[in-house]
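C-alpha cells in:
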C-alpha cells in the first residue's frame, strides 16, 4: 500500500486532447510538451498515454528526459526545448532526437556529432518574438546566421518555431504576425518550408489559430487539464484535470478542546476534535501554506487541513461518519460531489498551477486509472 499515490485519468487526458483538437483543427499534428516530468504527472506514463491517443511528437526540457523516453521504448520524434551543449550533441544524434537551435555554437556541436556518426541532426530553428529567452531575433544578422546553417552540411531543419511570451490576445496576435513574417524570411534563407509551430496553450485557448497557419501545435498545460496562466483568456470548455493525488488515514487521534496540534502549536482545537494523520507532506509536494486554509476529502466529506509537516499532515475529520484508519484521503481529485483541483491550491497559496504540479515528488508512484478508481471512499 502506497503512502501517497498519483493517479492519471486516461479519460480526462483523452477529453483534453479532443478539446485541443477542436481548438487547433482536427488534423493539425500535436507536439505534446512533457517537460519537467510531464508537468509533474510522470514523464513515461504520461508520454505513453499521449502516444496511445494519437500524439506522435513529444517535447522535453533536456536530453536526459529525451533519453529516458527512448530507454522506455518510445520511438516517436522528440524535440528538446533548450540549447544543446557540446556534451549533449552526441546523445541528440545517436538518440535520433531533434534539437532546438538558437545559436551557431550549438549548431556546430550538432554538425560535428552528426558527421562523426555518419548521420544528420534534425533541428528546429527558434525565433524570438518577444520572450527574450531562446531564439534568433528576426533581424538581418539573425537571418544571416540561420542561412549559414545550410552550409554546415549535416543539419536538417525540420521546423521553425517561436515561443510566445503571452500577455493579452492582442499581444499574442502581434507576436504571431511577427513570427509569420520571420518564417517566410527563414524559408527564403533555407530554401525550403519546414514545419511551423508557435501555438502553446494560451494562444490555443485564445483561439488564435487563424492568425497564423500552423502546421503543428505545441501544447502543455491544456493536455493536463490545466487552465492557461493568462487571466484575460478563459479556460476552454471541457477541460478536465488529469492528475489526482490520494493517501490514506494512517492514525486517528482524539484531541480535547484547547489542545495544540503540530510544531509550535500550528493548530489549536476550539472543541473536542477527531484528527486524522495522513502520511504525506511538503516533502511530497503538498504546499505547507495549505495548513489552516486547505481541505481534503474523506468519505465524500470535506476535512480541513490543519497542519502540514514534511512527511505528514493532519486533517480534521470531526463529525465525518465512520471515519477510520485506511480511509482514502483525496488531496487533489473528486469524492462524492466535491472536487479539489490544483487551481484551488494555487488560489490559496498564491503559487502558479504548473509550479505546484511540478513540485509533486517524481519518486511517487504514478498509476493510470479512470476517475472512478480515485473516488472510492472506503478503505481496502
Ligand atoms: C512549456 C513550453 C510549451 C508549452 O506551454 P503551455 O503553456 O504549457 O502549453 C510550449 N513550447 C515551449 C517552447 C515551452 O517551453
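Residues out:
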Amino acid at each position: 500500500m502506497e503512502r501517497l499515490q498519483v493517479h492519471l485519468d486516461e479519460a480526462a487526458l483523452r477529453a483534453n486532447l479532443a478539446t485541443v483538437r477542436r481548438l487547433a483543427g482536427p488534423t493539425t499534428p500535436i507536439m505534446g510538451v512533457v517537460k519537467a516530468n510531464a508537468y509533474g504527472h510522470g514523464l513515461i506514463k504520461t508520454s505513453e498515454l499521449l502516444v496511445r491517443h494519437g500524439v506522435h511528437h513529444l517535447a522535453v526540457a533536456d536530453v536526459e528526459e529525451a533519453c529516458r523516453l527512448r530507454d522506455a521504448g518510445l520511438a516517436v520524434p522528440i524535440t528538446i526545448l533548450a540549447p544543446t551543449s557540446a556534451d549533449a550533441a552526441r546523445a541528440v544524434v545517436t538518440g535520433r532526437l531533434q534539437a532546438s537551435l538558437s545559436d551557431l555554437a550549438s549548431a556546430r556541436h550538432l554538425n560535428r556529432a552528426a558527421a562523426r556518426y555518419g548521420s544528420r541532426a534534425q533541428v528546429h530553428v527558434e525565433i524570438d518574438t518577444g520572450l527574450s529567452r531562446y531564439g534568433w531575433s528576426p533581424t538581418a544578422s539573425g537571418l544571416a546566421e540561420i542561412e549559414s546553417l545550410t552550409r554546415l552540411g549535416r543539419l536538417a531543419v525540420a521546423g521553425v518555431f517561436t515561443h510566445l511570451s503571452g500577455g493579452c490576445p492582442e499581444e499574442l496576435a502581434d507576436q504571431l504576425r511577427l513570427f509569420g513574417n520571420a518564417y517566410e524570411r527563414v524559408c527564403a534563407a533555407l530554401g525550403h518550408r519546414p514545419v511551423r509551430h508557435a501555438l502553446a496553450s494560451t494562444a490555443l485557448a485564445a483561439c488564435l489559430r487563424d492568425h497564423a497557419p500552423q502546421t503543428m501545435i505545441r501544447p502543455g498545460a491544456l493536455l493536463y487539464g490545466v487552465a492557461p496562466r493568462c487571466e484575460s483568456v478563459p479556460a476552454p470548455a471541457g477541460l478536465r484535470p488529469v492528475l489526482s493525488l490520494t493517501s490514506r488515514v494512517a492514525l486517528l487521534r482524539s484531541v480535547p478542546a484547547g489542545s495544540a496540534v503540530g510544531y509550535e502549536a500550528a493548530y489549536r482545537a476550539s472543541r473536542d476534535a477527531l484528527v486524522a494523520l495522513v502520511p504525506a507532506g511538503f516533502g511530497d509536494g503538498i504546499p505547507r501554506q495549505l495548513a489552516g486554509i486547505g481541505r481534503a476529502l474523506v468519505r465524500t466529506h470535506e476535512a480541513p487541513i490543519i497542519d502540514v509537516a514534511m512527511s505528514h499532515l493532519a486533517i480534521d475529520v470531526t463529525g465525518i461518519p465512520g471515519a477510520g484508519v485506511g480511509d482514502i484521503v483525496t488531496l487533489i481529485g473528486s469524492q462524492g460531489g466535491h472536487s479539489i483541483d490544483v487551481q484551488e491550491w494555487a488560489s490559496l497559496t498564491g503559487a502558479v498551477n504548473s509550479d505546484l504540479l511540478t513540485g509533486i515528488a517524481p519518486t511517487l508512484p504514478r498509476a493510470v486509472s479512470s476517475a472512478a478508481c480515485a473516488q472510492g471512499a472506503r478503505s481496502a
